[in-house]
Amino acid sequence: MPVDPDELSAWRAGDADRVQLDEPAHLAPGRAGGDAALTFPDLPRLELDQLLGQLVDRAREVMATQSRLRGLLHANQMIIGDLALPVLLRRIAEAARELIGARYAALGVIALDGHLAEFVHAGMPEGAVEQIGHLPQGKGLLGALIDDPSPIRLHRITDDPRSSGFPPGHPPMHSFLGVPIRVRDEVFGNLYLTEKAEGGEFTAEDEELTKALAATAGVAIENARLYEAARSRQEWLRASAAITRRLLSVDTAEAGRPLHLIAESSREVAQADLVTVLLPADDGSDLRVEVAVGVGAADLLGVSVPLDASLAGRVFTTGEPLRVSTPNEQPGLASVASGGLDVGPVLVLPLLGSQQIHGVLTAARRSGAPAFSAEDLDMAAGFANQASVAVELAEARAEQQRAAMLDERERIAADLHDQVIQRVFAAGLSLHAVATGLGPGKATERILGTVRDLDNTVSQIRTAIFQLHQMPQAQPHGLRARLLDVATDVASALGFTPAVRFAGLLDDTVPDDVAEDLLAVLREALSNIARHAQARSAEVDVTARPDRLTLDVRDDGVGMGPSTRRSGLANLRRRAERHGGTLTLTPCKPSGTLLSWSVPTR
Fold first, then answer.
1. What is the CATH number of the domain that holds 352?
2. Residue 424: inside a domain
3. Which of 465, 467, 453 is nearest to 425 (CA)?
């Protein structure tokens, strides 16, 4: 039968000063009968009171312990009821605060570099959080628990030499209890408790309860991570299958933009804020952003990073995927191209095909976002590799289709050259003869205008014949082919393919140094249209005369405005002036801009 400590206390307080005992007669000689009152001596009574007091105290301790154990069970139930890791971390902090009776509680997740990747707090007023600004980074006393994952219990935080104080606006805190959370043999993070209720200090029992809660939290976190890994693996596998199916489809426009498709799928599954695809430059000295999706993507197209001093360059060279919690985690190496994003965790993945590395894919989250896990790295790397192989398969199939079309293209080109051009040319000669016979007049002017139109038509047909003779995406050799290749490269950024027309003997009359500048100017001009013009079409005219080369680029966009970048235009002007040429910009009607770059060739 349970003993009530209050009843014991009342009994001990003196409700009965004597104990009536049935005593044998031989113990009380000279008395009638054997029934007599026996009074305890003072010393044995004092010892009995002490024993009863200890019994009362122990009973109260047992009841208090039972209450706290029930609280621990309730806290355990709170944190094992959800498999979503962000929700679970907040529940752990709230459960610890309620169990121990602390005013404030927090859970800090340790990043790869030893700093705090996440800091989930409970009990802190929202106004104080906004006033403080940035969350703790793992310095001072918080960093001490990271460096040495052993419990820390303090009556006053300021008494510890490792304490680094509080930022402005931070509420006052005195008592402190910190306990590590382990997931298997890995220290996942730490539980921080401050301000024991009623101004007291944390006890050894508080520490033991927090350690018990941290052990349960470690198991719950492991289960949540396993669940998240399984869910994420399913998402990556689904994305890989979708990439392969869509790239090999002959009926979708996505098959013609494989890198965009890979970037968009990666961003969605990785929950990244920015994804870029970098490909090696022609000279192999750096990597250039060819595709960007997400925050600040428009400003990243064409940006280059060094091959020998960047995270992307390291991954491209070694073929090994890489993950970092912050850009500063790899000292001495430039971060990935990030545009206007405050970069936090990053995945850098090689686009590894069947025989070579085609490029690098980077997935970045904003600063303060959850770090990528080792499972994220493995699954994302597998997705990138499978996507690269799918691109190779799509390109191989497209190559077969191009080979099948080559004979037809050659036949069409021959017909245009041998029949159409000759007939148009003959018609032009006939009209010119008629105009000569008519003499001056409006009719003659109209006929001569038609002759000029026919000459332009012949020029356009010759350009079409040249394009028909070029194998799509074949390795260019002549200047014409290289200019067409530039237009094709920028088409994905523009959203359309610009029209390109040639006049004159480009491949034979343009010096090599002028040709290189011409290619760079065309790429920069088209890239500027993609970034700023919001154009729906563009036209490129390249005219080679015996002594001068002229490049005209027209678009139907919004025209020149205050936001137009002047640095790129200054570079184009320098490329013209080094050859004694000029650069002019002229507004077009009703909209758009004409860029004219002209240099002498002699």
1. 3.30.450.40
2. no
3. 453
